[in-house]
Amino acid sequence: MDTVMLSRFQFASTTIFHYFFVPVSIGLALLIAIMETMYVRKGNEEYKKMAQFWGKLFLINFAVGVVTGILQEFQFGMNWSDYSRFVGDVFGAPLAIEALLAFFLESTFIGLWIFGWDKVSKRVHLLSIWLVAFGTMLSAFWILAANSFMQHPVGFAINNGRAEMNDFFALITNGQLLVEFPHTVLAAYATGAFLVTGISAYKLLRKQEVSFFKKSFEIAAIVGIVSSMGVAVAGHAQAQYLVKTQPMKMAASEGLWGKSGDPAPWTIYAKIDPKNKVSSNEIQIPYLLSFLSYSTFSGEVKGMNELQAEYVQKYGEGDYIPPVRTTFWSFRIMVAAGTAMIVLGLYAIYLIWRKKMDRPNTWFMRFMLWGLLLPPIANTAGWIMTEIGRQPWTVFGYMQTKDSVSPNISSGQVLFSVISFTTIYLILGLVMVGLFIKVIKKGPYAMDNDHDVSHDPYNKEVSPNVS
Amino acid sequence: MSLNELWFLLIAVLFVGFFFLEGFDFGVGMETQFLAKNDTERRVLINSIGPFWDANEVWLITAAGAMFAAFPDWYATLFSGFYVPFVFALLALIARGVAFEFRGKRDSQAWKKTWDACIFFGSAIPPFLLAVVFASFIKGLPIDGDMQMYAGFTDIVNVYTVVAGITVVLLCLVHGLMFTTLRTSGDLQNRARSLGQKLLLPLGALLLAFVIMTYYMTDIFDQHGAWLLIMVVLGIVAYLLAGYFMMKKKDSLAFGMTGAVIALSVASIFVGLFPRVMISSIDQAFNLTITNAASGHYSLKVMTIVALTMLPFVLGYQIWSYFIFHKRIHEKEHLEY
């Protein structure tokens, strides 16, 4: 394999892995901040316990998110040095600002939150977790500003053979960013929320610490349904922006080779044959693609063949069609998972509203338990669609992936790093899941015992060689 | 001062800050293997850096981000050129970061030992490799006319860079020991101080060897002789004062002086480089400089405004967090988080 393929594999696998943890951190930080706010305002110890229990999971997750994030900051330079040279003037700024504004804020105040329970006042402690939550959101904003530039480059000019920034304001008000940021952040809130409802459902099914997990479930269910519906609304806005700025990605995500016809139907299923450039056996919902693209029930969407011809004229000879099947199916997986989240969330809200949470339906709670997997599936599929659908470009219209890779690294070196990183990530993933299960099984009050005994110097923490 | 010079200075400051701060938590990470006599002491040591190490590491991430934004070619040449060392540094930093969080989560001894090993190697490998990278900066690297660096094994790993690596590891260790004297008490504190004193002599020998090798093997004394002479003298003074304060048990002053040695060492590298950012061993004309590796004026201007507005706040709350956690950690307090 060549360095381009290996580097792409490494970027995809490490980024997907990193992105399991990022949305959980963003979502849980908000939920914990809400729980601790309720503790401070109502003085009910149960909410404090909630902040601490979910906080424990948050910290395990946060640690993995942070360390896998360091790699992200380095690998543009390591594997994509020609890309870095070309875009650094524009793309580097949001990354540096992200570190300065968000990473320092998160890391300092998470330290204060972990170690500060009895060192700072209640209000300062509460402020710390809100600042962490705010920091995770800021971080998302700046990294998405950088990603949006790759999808829809703005605020720059090509000088000296590279992209140079000439309008910072345009960069941070990029239309792509304005739709991508709410979509992504709301999805992250939903991810945290469904994790909490899922784990709570597990505990409620076992009738353990019922009051604690019922309250957790309720708070998370409300955040979950609001954000899931918000994700859909923002996603709709994103689709409309996509038709205008990256019509090829839109066509590929529909498996649409020729014109859609007017009004355009939305395809649920299709057998796609990229070799012969045809899709067959389609199952379609009339009008829906027109609605997705233009918010009205009419309007035509361009197909890949027509766009390919346009792009050849504009950018020169080449294949501008992304991997169609991956783009098509990742979009459908995302939409299906998102829809399932909304359905589950609505029913959960109905239960809470009708005060039926005391005797919840066992089947429904099982769905909620496994529902914690829906957001990560949707998040991953969404990013695969976004990034694969942009191919062959790294910066749409300006730089292709094959020209982005570092020319001075060998395939042996990249193979080595791919193997090293995937191995260590696999271990991390397994350990993390194991620890999550352990913490969850122990529950919030077993943790309390730990807490008390550890004030005693002769507790089990002290190893046998202390006499 | 031009914006290019300002950003070179800011990046230098970020690296100085990184080595000063993460330097002591690397040191403490290493100490856990031989200074702590039991698990409680190990826990005390880890907790002494618990609230800080993550923010300290952000100095490195910010430095890398600032390089990317202000000097994209420096960032690109550096990270692709040192591909394999960075893979190792990343593996070490990844293992170390999660180890702090994971080690206390199970009671088994084997579990703790595994993560303790990660903390040790994760604290020793990154400063070693970063020192190797910085030493090869000033020694020169095979960088061609397209700013591409094609380094062989001995371009990166040689006597000069390895001496630099060991020196910095030892420097971090001594600095970490001094930090331990500030945040612990009793026996642990005394042991930290006396180990620091014992390591001072070999550290001095290594530092001296490195300065002499630098004089003969690099051109930085030809370029900035006067400046570097001042810094070397200051370094010697700080080193001697560190020893004196250790002897007098003036721990915070001793910590300040080991920190000063680190800061002067890192700063000397940047002084020696200026106005270059990477030196080509093939041809001087191929050097990366603060001019030919930089972003455009507009981008630097935007970044300057953002950085100068935000920096006071960032520094302010970090200093405040050190103030909150200034008390010594006792074995009898709540240690598991």
UniProtKB/TrEMBL annotation, chain A:
Keywords of the record: Cell membrane, Electron transport, Heme, Iron, Membrane, Metal-binding, Transmembrane, Transmembrane helix, Transport
UniProt GO molecular function: electron transfer activity; heme binding; metal ion binding; oxidoreductase activity, acting on diphenols and related substances as donors, oxygen as acceptor
Listed InterPro entries: Cyt-d_ubiquinol_oxidase_su_1
Membrane-spanning segments: 20-41, 53-71, 91-115, 127-145, 186-205, 217-239, 329-352, 364-385, 414-437
Swiss-Prot/TrEMBL GO biological process terms: aerobic electron transport chain
Tree of life domain: Bacteria
Keyword set includes Transmembrane: yes
Main location: membrane
Gene Ontology, cellular component aspect: cytochrome complex; plasma membrane
Location of the protein in the cell: Cell membrane
Bilayer topology term: Multi-pass membrane protein
Family: Belongs to the cytochrome ubiquinol oxidase subunit 1 family.
Protein name per its UniProtKB record: Cytochrome ubiquinol oxidase subunit I
UniProtKB/TrEMBL annotation, chain B:
UniProt membrane topology term: Multi-pass membrane protein
InterPro entries: Cyt-d_oxidase_su2
GO CC entries: cytochrome complex; plasma membrane
One function term, GO molecular function aspect: oxidoreductase activity, acting on diphenols and related substances as donors, oxygen as acceptor
Keywords associated with the record: Cell membrane, Electron transport, Heme, Iron, Membrane, Metal-binding, Transmembrane, Transmembrane helix, Transport
Residue ranges crossing the lipid bilayer per the database entry: 6-24, 74-94, 115-138, 158-178, 199-218, 224-246, 253-274, 302-325
Major localisation: membrane
Subcellular location(s) of the protein: Cell membrane
GO biological process: aerobic electron transport chain
UniProt xrefs under NCBIfam families: cydB (TIGR00203)
Family per similarity comment: Belongs to the cytochrome ubiquinol oxidase subunit 2 family.
Name recorded for this polypeptide: Cytochrome d ubiquinol oxidase subunit II
Organism: Paenibacillus monticola
Lineage: Bacteria, Bacillati, Bacillota, Bacilli, Bacillales
